[in-house]
Amino acid sequence: MCSSGGSYQATFSHRCINAAHEIGHLFGAGHEDSAAPYPSYAKAYHWTEWFIYDRYTALWSSFMGNDMCLEYSCDTRHGDASLHDNARRISETKGVVAGYQ
Ligand SMILES: [Zn+2]
């Protein structure tokens, strides 16, 4: 998003999603195709809204522009407990991250 000598062009919304993406990694959340050391259930999620609009959670590996959503995959919304639950992983690791000094 930033070429040499250029300026950063991402919108505020895109920057928030990017920040959420990287913070998610710090808490052990993975991409849609992440393998170990990420747990098998901690993957990003994709869904189709109104049968035509593709949507992606914040941990999707490629930035998908306005189709990205500022949310983590979760077993209760835009995800499932078996493969797409980044929120669970973040919740599990928050105590470890809080202990870093
Ligand atoms: Zn990433």
What's the quick description here?
With about 100 residues, the chain is of the alpha+beta class.
Can you walk me through this structure?
The protein is α+β, with helices and mostly antiparallel strands and 101 residues long. The protein has one domain (12-98). It is 28% helix and 8% strand. A two-stranded antiparallel sheet has the order 1-2. Strand 1 (46-49) and strand 2 (53-56) form a beta hairpin. 27% of the residues are buried. The model has no long low-confidence stretch (mean pLDDT 93). Zinc ion is lined by residues 21, 25, 31, 61.
Can you give keywords for this protein?
101 residues, alpha+beta, two-stranded antiparallel sheet, 2 helices
Poorly predicted segments: none
- Number of beta strands: 2
Arrangement of strands in the largest sheet: 1-2
For the CA atoms, what is the radius of gyration?
14 Å
Largest sheet: 2 strands, antiparallel
- What hetero molecules are bound to the protein chains? zinc ion
- Spatial separation of the terminal alpha carbons: 32 Å
Counting copies of identical and different chains, the oligomeric state is: single chain
Supply the helix-strand structural class: alpha+beta
Number of domains: 1
Please report the number of helical segments: 2
**What is the chain-wise order of helices and strands?**
HEEH
Strand content: 5-15%
Please render the helix and strand layout as text:
Layout: H1 12-26, E1 46-49, E2 53-56, H2 86-98
Antiparallel strand pairs: 1-2
The structure holds zinc ion (ZN).
Zinc ion binds next to helix 1.
